Amino acid sequence: MGVTPEELAQAYPLLYHMADAGSWKSIRKHGLLSTSALLDLFKKRGEERDRIESRRRPENVEITSPEHGRAVVRDQKPLIESKLGKSLKHCTMPQWYRLLNKHVFFWLTRERLQTLMCARSYRDHTHLILTIQTLPFARRYEGQIVLSPMNSGNTQPYAHPRSPATFKKMCDYPFENRAKYGKQYQVVELAVEGGADVNKMLASADLMKCHGNGLRTVKNIHSR
Length: 224
Description:
Layout: H1 5-11, E1 14-19, H2 24-30, E2 32-33, H3 35-41, H4 46-53, E3 61-65, E4 69-73, H5 81-87, H6 93-101, E5 103-107, H7 110-117, E6 127-133, H8 134-141, E7 145-148, E8 168-169, H9 183-186, E9 189-193, E10 195-196, E11 202-211, E12 214-223
Antiparallel strand pairs: 1-6, 2-10, 3-4, 5-9, 6-11, 7-8, 7-9, 11-12
């Protein structure tokens, strides 16, 4: 039971995060922030915050502040509420949305990143892709990392059962037992509550776009 940073990095040397194309400056300054942490930074309260944090976002939401300018909170199009409600255990839909919004999510394979970027809703747009070295990241944030064996933000084509217990700390994740499912399913998601400073762990930051059956780098912003 459990997985160490070294074991995780051996299986998945790189992590991938997809962000809004215009978010590089903010990430460099504040780190990668969860939706909830971003709302804290922008001092969003009341109905506006509840609408963003506790309900499904069918489209991107732009937020602004005199101090921090503009930021984009990504949509949740892959979550279909009629399916989500039937798949949830031990929490309500608002609780599930708040749980997701407390975390920053990463893919552990380029193939999963490509699947998301080439999905109908995203394939015509350019996105900021952060490629992060797993080992230093996992060592630094081991106590905050949770792992998931499924795509927690998707209910298509089938809504797998999910609950808060879907996310497990590295020390509790059945890493060895799930090896039989192959690399794409041994660990599906890695998430960190609140956010993470990834600047020193970045392998690269690129503006990328879906291109045919693969991905095309539009512009390299940062390389190590």
